[in-house]
Please model this.
Amino acid sequence: MASDWSGHITVKAIEAKAGYAVAGVNPEDGTGFVEILGDATLSRLSEELRQQFRLSLTIRGKSALQAKARATVWPRLFDEITASDNVIGIVSKADEDDRRAEVFVSASQFDRLVNNLSTRTTVMLYCRESTLSESDLVLSIHVYTTIIAP
Model:
């Protein structure tokens, strides 16, 4: 992964919600999700300037392929996620001040991630620029929680 990413987005959570959605009787029809709203900074290896914006991040407890198989509507933009084994999400630009991110992780990864959320959570999204759209593809997500503060 280290050679693939070309930038990272640091998100300082302002608000976080965790939930579980069920859409049928099979266990596979349910999925956990986390919605994080935060102030974000994009730093690219090729640029000195940093971009600041508000980010709405949704992390889902299933792979993109699982989500696509059960979706009634699947945005074409999301096809970049399912077309590559090392891409787990996408960050799209809503406007200059707001962006939206969707990240897909396995159920077991999701369970460990949720246990690290708090009001002092910082999320790092390691990404590279998309070749098909004005967006970034997420290659890795790191979640940090402050447990001792001054």
